[in-house]
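Lab notebook, page 48
Experiment: co-folding of the full assembly
Goal: obtain a model of how the components sit together before planning crosslinking
Operator: M.T.
Materials (sequences as entered):
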Amino acid sequence: MTDPDSTSPAPDPQQPADPQPTDPGRREVLRQGALLTATALGLGGGLTLLTRRPAPAEPAPDPQTAAGRVIRPTGPYDTQEAMTGYRDMTTYNNFYELGLGKDDPARHAGALPTRPWTVVVDGEVKKPVTLDIDTLQSWFPLEDRIYRMRCVEGWSMVMPWFGFPLAALLRRLEPTGAARYVQFTAINAPDKLPGQRPWVLEWPYTEGLRLDEALHPLTLLAVGLEGRSLPAQNGAPLRLVVPWKYGFKGIKAIVRMTLTRTQPQTTWALAAPDEYGFYANVNPAVPHPRWSQATEQRIGESGRRPTLPFNGYGEQVAGLYSGLDLRRNF
Ligand code: MTE
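Observation: model returned without errors.
Model output:
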């Protein structure tokens, strides 16, 4: 991830294919090189690309998400702020499995097969399940949630998600008394996903939450965006949304959720532990080692606006972290 104000060149789509690393030394060299590539070309390099995006492919209408439905902030968790335009939300993306450039996920969206799709929930849970995505989403009433989204790179959007609280799923499956965390795993399909062919990050992409964070009513599993099916570039068919954390916690294309006793490994913390922590709570007082987090560029606006602690959700979530040093646990 680079300085968000920098004017990085457009990503080179010709990433060299990398042989599988064999020894730890070589692996470390590759990791550093890959991270340089990922950070120099990917996250953070994209604000300059806003003018050169492809027209988004219109996602197939979904009976549950009538296309064109007008979304209004009516729920207790909805922000009243102006929503980001659909085109911006669906053509300015981070989804490294589909490429490093901001416009790559929309261009390569067709490479991600989102049906059939199986989701596994296992580990420290009394009723583990393996089920198909349509069954999973039929279990719960789906609701709109208009949330702020703040990327660690320094840009933000307001996105109207459609989905169900992760807590509803976890409670139904009954975590055991030993469960402390949830690990999320994304699709691993290097034969299909162009971004997984070069060794850019440790695949599959993984993320994690503490169980109390996962059970918080703001934490959502999204299956739609702005009243339509979730586009592939935004993480179809199932994607995590945790609005008080930096956007990289919002893992896309989830295939597995495992309840664990110990803190799970997460992709970005593994790639650059000094830069990306497990918690990743939005915090204007703790700069990224290479740039400030005090302000953000709201996509579609000119100028930068102040970033709010916990992305403006402090009233709801600050209590989860009482007694925790948020500088050390960044
Ligand atoms: N999930 C997967 N599987 N792969 C990714 O590369 N990128 C993350 C997150 N989820 C990513 C991912 C990052 S860095 C951000 S900022 C958000 O997705 C971007 O979400 P959006 O493109 O829907 O705005």
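Interpretation: Residues 43, 93-97, 151, 186, 205, 234, 247-248, 250-253 surround MTE (CB under 6 Å).
Next step: discuss with group before ordering constructs.
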